[in-house]
UniProtKB/TrEMBL annotation:
Alphabetical UniProt keywords: Glycosidase, Hydrolase
Lineage: Bacteria, Bacillati, Actinomycetota, Actinomycetes, Micromonosporales
GO molecular function, one term: hydrolase activity
Provenance organism: Micromonospora harpali
Name listed for the protein in its UniProt record: Glycoside hydrolase family 43 protein
Keyword Hydrolase: yes
Family membership: Belongs to the glycosyl hydrolase 43 family.
Beta-xylosidase C-terminal Concanavalin A-like domain ranges (all copies): 333-539
Length: 541
């Protein structure tokens, strides 16, 4: 084998981080036989609990999401960055178990979290009706012990003024036969001096119980902490070597915010850690791509503690040596030929039901019935996909004949209800069909009337939204080729850091998602307007 060929073969077997680029935080990793799954948080977006699948830890494919129906979760009225936090996926006795938190608030020490459990014989479902668990804290997970018992863990939230809001990790037994929690909860672990202890996962290995938690908050001070005990209920001793993984104090690293991890054991006995990271555009700057998922190799000697080389996240690590299993590349262009949205698409605050997302009435078109305004949290009509690279674009062709200024359809670079850029077709007061541009920065809207473009007739119009590092640009095609809207917009407002707002020490707004590119239709008068999208092309440049 030539040196060049050997390098290619080695690279193919390497895990390149992040393995799930873009908005994919709080990974829960699971192996069932030869199959690996990663479940991640989705917050106010359907389908809830996004899942990816691999057979070699190197190549991953999206399977879509699990929580696809209001039967499983109702996100109407869900606040920005509320909703589905930190799901946990496990397998026991021939069934998948999924625990997820629906967090309703995060102000004044109140989270109002409600935890749910659903089960299925297959990752594709069908999933059971949800079991309502406790609401004492979020980041819930399950542990299936060797004696056949099952236990629920979560962080314990303490709302009382003057108390530590992150009061530690609690545990309570779950009766699988009766499908309910039994006995009293017990405080398992109060964390280290780093604080903000959350994201628990429990493992049984080498005669010990191993508790893996996230500490330091989900931003620059994030870390993975490991503690162990001979007894399930403790006491738990913290690794004297310090955190298993962190980026703290290393602004030179490309992968920041390293924390919130979960472990997986391969068929060959190797250990790996899936964890959260962020990639700021500047040192400790805004992370437009949101919080992403990476994987690190773990050394775990018999009788010893697990460790990640250097204790920091690496951009590339050796794979487990499993047979390589690449997946077919996702088509660059979605022609909307299927009867349902593809796995890369998400919808805001309501599932993609036929009453507003219609892939059947007009073949090879996505018909989106208009919804609420940008601040509406009950029935918006936004179909979007995650931004996965610093340079990328979403291009579409839309047919839309608005009646008045209450009807808008176009493309958006979007973060949340307060932060977005939108190029859309609408109707001016004098009856002209026009293209207009509108931006929102922390809820402060900026219009660009001088950039309005006439779009005569009723025919199709090409639209494109483009991320170019810290800049967002928009383009249009009225039949004579692509032309750019002559303004450069700030992409960094579409980030977790920009979305967060602290007033008098309390979070008035938070940012836990990441930037998206989407197809957005508004029918502010409720007059039945819809837009037809002929295709959607997503490219990373």
């Amino acid at each position: 084998m030539s040196t060049e060929t050997a390098d290619v073969a080695t690279a193919a077997r390497s895990i390149r981080n992040p393995v799930l680029p873009g908005f994919h935080p709080d990974p829960s990793i699971l192996r069932v036989g030869d199959d690996y799954y990663l479940a991640t948080s989705t917050f106010e977006w359907y389908p809830g609990v996004r899942v990816h699948h691999s057979r070699d830890l190197v190549h991953w494919r999206p399977l879509g999401g699990i929580v696809t129906e209001r039967r499983l979760l109702d996100l109407r009225g869900c606040g920005d960055s509320n909703g589905v936090w930190a799901p946990d996926l496990t397998w026991h006795d021939g069934q998948f178990f999924l625990v997820y938190s629906d967090v309703a608030s995060f102000a004044s020490g109140y989270w109002d979290p409600q935890n749910y459990l659903i089960t299925a014989p297959d990752i594709a479902g069908p999933w059971s009706d949800p079991v309502q668990l406790h609401g004492r804290g979020f980041d819930a997970s399950l542990f299936h012990d060797d004696d056949g018992s099952t236990w629920m863990l979560s962080m314990r939230a303490d709302w009382r003024p003057g108390r530590d809001r992150f009061a530690g990790i609690e545990i309570q037994r779950y009766d699988r036969a009766e499908r309910r929690l039994v006995g009293r909860p017990q405080l398992l672990f109060t964390g280290t001096s780093v604080g903000l202890t959350e994201g628990p996962h429990l493992y049984r290995h080498d005669g010990w119980y191993w508790l893996v938690t996230a500490e330091g908050g989900t931003s620059w001070e994030h870390q993975v902490t490991v503690a162990r005990s001979r007894e399930l209920l403790g006491p738990y001793e913290v690794d004297p070597a310090g955190p298993l993984l962190t980026s703290v104090g290393r602004p030179d690293l490309s992968l920041q915010k390293a924390g919130h991890g979960s472990l997986v054991h391969t068929q060959h006995g190797d250990w790996y850690l899936a964890h959260l990271v962020g990639r700021p555009y500047t040192p400790l700057g805004n992370c437009v791509l949101g919080r992403e998922t990476a994987i690190q190799r773990v050394d775990w000697p018999a009788g010893g503690w697990p460790s990640v080389p250097g204790g920091v996240p690496a951009d590339e690590v050796a794979g487990p040596g499993l047979p390589l299993h690449p997946w077919p590349d996702e088509p660059v262009t979605d022609h909307f030929d299927a009867g349902e949205l593809g796995a890369s698409w998400s919808t805001l605050r309501r599932p993609a039901t036929d009453d507003w997302v219609d892939l059947r009435s007009r073949p090879s078109h996505l018909r989106v019935h208009g919804g609420q305004s940008p601040v509406g949290k009950q029935a918006p009509s936004l179909v979007a996909r995650r931004v996965g690279a610093t340079h990328c674009s979403l291009e579409t062709v839309v047919e839309f004949d608005p009646v008045d200024h209450y009807q808008l359809a176009g493309v958006t670079a979007y973060y949340n209800t307060l932060n977005w850029h939108h190029l859309y077709l609408t109707r001016a007061d004098d009856g002209r069909r026009v293209l207009e541009l509108l931006s929102s920065d922390s809820g402060r809207r900026t219009a660009y009337p001088e950039l309005t473009v006439d779009a005569p007739g009723t025919g199709p119009v090409g639209l494109r939204a483009e991320f170019d590092g810290p800049v967002v640009r928009f383009w249009y095609d009225l039949g004579a080729g692509w032309r750019r809207i002559p303004v450069e917009l700030d992409a960094t407002i579409l980030s977790d850091e920009h979305a967060a707002l602290i007033i008098d020490g309390e979070p008035a707004a938070w940012g836990f998602t990441g930037a998206l590119l989407g197809l957005w239709v508004q029918d502010l008068g409720g007059d039945g307007a819809h837009a037809d999208f002929d295709l959607a092309t997503y490219r990373e440049h």
